[in-house]
Amino acid sequence: MARVDERLIHGQMALAWLRTYNADCVIVIDDGSAHDAMKKMLLEMAAGVIKCIVCDETAAKEKIEQNIGKKLFLCAGNPSVFLHLLQEGVAVPQINIGGIYDKPGRTKLYKTIFLDDKLKQDILSLEAFPNTKVEHRQVPRDFEVDIIADLKK
What we know:
This protein is of the alpha/beta class. It has one domain: Fructose Permease (3-Layer(aba) Sandwich). Helix content is 38%, strand content 23%. The chain has 7 helices and 8 strands, in the order βαβααβαβαβββαβα. The strands form 2 sheets. The protein has a 6-stranded parallel sheet with strand order 3-2-4-1-5-8, sandwiched between helices. A two-stranded antiparallel sheet has the order 6-7. Strand 6 and strand 7 form a beta hairpin. The longest helix has 10 residues. The chain is globular, with a radius of gyration of 14 Å. The chain starts with a strand and ends with a helix.
């Protein structure tokens, strides 16, 4: 399972997503956090008892491969991270687009999804990988929404 959320790990993530998917390990793929000791420490603390690896995008494939036998939960702030991993041949069966928040130049699609042209194109590009399901939900119990179909309307 993979989730796009600009907040990375937060209460909802730790209490709902990681527990629902019974993750052994969460891999946060975020260049800024990987190179900032304080951010890295806070993300590791937010994951609680679940092993947390914080890496930059260039190390992500290697970190995933090193932990392949575990129940991994991948987290990134931008869909382009998962697009890049898929292009590198990393299998990502499901991507949840969960939290891309309001900023100048972005248009609201759902309550917690605001997109500019680049973000929209990155999400639409995920469709090129038929073995990857792309959906939107805020929390695991929500009904899965086909975000790609909605973006094509």
